[in-house]
Amino acid sequence: MRIGILTGGGDVPGLNACIKAVTNRAVADGHEVVGIRRGWAGLLELDPSDPDGAATHTLKLDPEVVRTIDRTGGTILHTSRTNPAKVRPADEPDFLKAGRVKDEARDHTQHVLRVLDQVGIDALAPIGGDDTLSFALRLHDEGVPVVAIPKTMDNDVHGTDYCIGFSTAVTRTVIFIHQLRTSAGSHERLAVVEVFGRYSGETSLVSAYLSGMDRAIISEVPFDVEKLATLLMDDKRKNPSRYAMTTISEGAHFVGGEMVMGGTADAYGHRKLGGIGAQTGEALKEITGEGIIHQQVGYLMRSGSPDALDLMVATNYAVMAADLLLEGTHGRLVALRNGTYVNVPVEEVRRGVKRVDVDALYDTDEYRPKIRHVDGKPMFLY
Amino acid sequence: MRLGVLTGGGDCPGLNAAIRAVVRRGVRGHGIEFMGFQDGWKGVLDDACEPLGVPETRGILHRGGTILGSSSTDPIRAEDGPDRVRATLERHVLDGLVVIGGEGTLKSVVPLAERGVRVVGIPKTIDNDVAGTDTTIGFTTAAQLATDAVDRLHSTAESHDRVMLVEVMGRHAGWIAVHAGMAGGADAILIPEQPFDIDEVSEHLRRRHAGGRSFSIVVVAEGAAPIEGMLELPEAPLDENGFPRLGGLASWLAPGFEERTGFATRVTILGHLQRGGSPVASDRVLATRFGIAAADLAAAGGWGRMVALYGRDIRDVRIADTVGLRNLVPIELYRDAAVFFG
Fold first, then answer.
1. Which of A5, A186, A259, A329 has the smallest set of CB atoms within 10 Å of its CB?
2. Closest chain B residue to A243 measured between Cα atoms?
3. 3-state SS of chain A?
């Protein structure tokens, strides 16, 4: 069997460990593994009439090639946000442009099926978040054997309690928050720490919970900046070191306000978020007259090598995905449920992105995590 | 002898190590008694201080920030500032002050000295721009934190075939940028001392990508400047002391790079993450040596002087001789970094 593997969406630490483990598991049983470069874009841009097409867009993986890759973050296969079922004019390769009349997104799934056939890929192990995996589901519907592997630093894929990358992102954020404490304390300031996480507040909520932040603003709950100012000033008064800190999701918004967008939407409806932290900082400064530190953690959250938990999950997901493909089980999403490795129907990704269970985990009056009754909850609380 | 101690300006790693050394040497070596002023010059103006002895400075060597707090308050600009400073010193019967600060904090020393306020200085700033000393407390740790960030951002830049602009601090000097860029293997470094041509840098990134490299990392000093007349930068807002508030240059440059290179360009602004955390070994050693030397200098009556690193030696220089000057990145160092561009 020849297994194709690819990584899509934002990079996270742990992807390389996953690629390595799939390769080693499959090759040990006498199968072949082909890495597809730049996510689904590698298949979209592969021109079947180009004799070098396969060499340009794919990479044969064997134990020698993957020997050391697990030690670093990112992905050796590179990644893209391309979804072949929704291709913008800018992402459409020239040889597929024929017949385009309008600027709308076009569906090139049939082309991808032809390419898979030509390269001789029998089964696919795509690693991605909800958007990357939605195309995996599409291919599954078309009859391609697929086992999907969930990754996102937002931990927002339905059907699993855990996605590769979340732990390292939170670990790094917690470290950065503690590093900022010395500056916030020395200058007796209010600090606003803005975290990635798109429309999901998990990274803000969990980082705040684990680092003992005073407050956490999450995407799911619009906030009143006057009230936040009052709460933070109260926190500052009570803190012997005379400072206060809050996390804020990049996707957070003011009560009655729109989500703050910096930049424009891409073809998949992903907008480049950012800017709410700066705006909140300005507003807090105006209301309180205090000095403000506004810091975006941004790309540093997912940069660098994976922590032990992400290595553990990435490697086990890979072994499980390879096991399923080799035994002929398809249409599955590898997952963690209640602390146990399981596989669930890949249709789960149709449910979109998972968001914070606000009622169970967040105090909407106090703007901070409210974690009670942990007994019986999954390891990551939701 | 009785002395006050204060830390002024932006916090940086190593301040606590310096405070600890000043107090330990002063108390044990010279029988000096210390008062710690809170929040820099502000604490002196407002008479906010507490006795500072050896017990208060235990266990702080490795901690970032400053146990005394800090501020950018300028005693010269404050109403009746010099008189209030003198009144506070007289009230607590202090012979003088040990001032740990950067250019802004130290420059107040000269006019204060004319009014009879006696000071010895210890230079600190992550920007490393204080004239008269080879290095300041905090610089090496900031350069290390920036290097760590450049290292880690490689994986994300490479995975996405991107140009990553990493903006570092440094005000009008490019020290952090050059060190982090050299140590992190940056593909280009933009610093204030060497005005850049965005077309040339973009061309050079295009060449690099055409040669098979699919990503680039550009370290941008917050005070970097384009060649005059080439690119109109937005006016930086001024802070309470009339200094431009830098930061955000990389976000402003990113669309220009994207347009000229055709590569997706993303920005990481390290900001306060460069100041945080624990000082690296060489900053602890420098701060400790500076602190010891400053206590000795005060005991010997070396008022109006600051301790300084000169090669491997600690010396002291007249603060008045350093005011208005800046320690900038020499062209030779930048040329060495440029060997590895592209």
1. A329
2. B69
3. CEEEEEECCCCCCCHHHHHHHHHHHHHHCCCEEEEECCCHHHHHCCCCCCCCHHHHHEEEECHHHHCCHHHCCCCCCCCCCCCCCCECHHHCCHHHCCCCCCCCCECCHHHHHHHHHHHCCCEEEEEECHHHHHHHHHHHHCCCCEEEEEECCCCCECCCCCCECHHHHHHHHHHHHHHHHHHHHHHCCEEEEEECCCCCCHHHHHHHHHHCCCEEECCCCCECHHHHHHHHHHHHHHCCCCCEEEEEECCCCECCCCCCEEEEECCCCCEEECCHHHHHHHHHHHHHCCCEEEEECHHHHHCCCCCHHHHHHHHHHHHHHHHHHHCCCCCEEEEEECCEEEEEEHHHHHHCECCCCHHHHEECCCCEECCCCCCCCCCCCC
pLDDT of amino acid B239: 66
Q: CB distance A183–B272 less than 8 Å?
A: yes
- CB contact (8 A) between residue A180 and residue B273: yes
The pLDDT assigned to A258 comes to: 58
pTM for the full predicted model: 0.83
Residues of chain A with pLDDT under 50: 261-269, 271-274
Q: What pLDDT is attached to residue B244?
A: 66
**In chain A, which among 94-133 make CB contacts under 8 A with chain B?**
none
Average per-residue pLDDT in chain B? Answer: 92
The residues of B assigned a catalytic role are: 127
The pLDDT value recorded for residue B236 is 67
Q: Point out the residues of A that are catalytic.
A: 154
* A79:B160 CB<8 A: yes
Q: Which of A6, A16, A179 to mutate to test the interface with B (most CBs of B within 10 A)?
A: A179
Verify whether the Cβ–Cβ distance B271 to A303 is below 8 Å: no
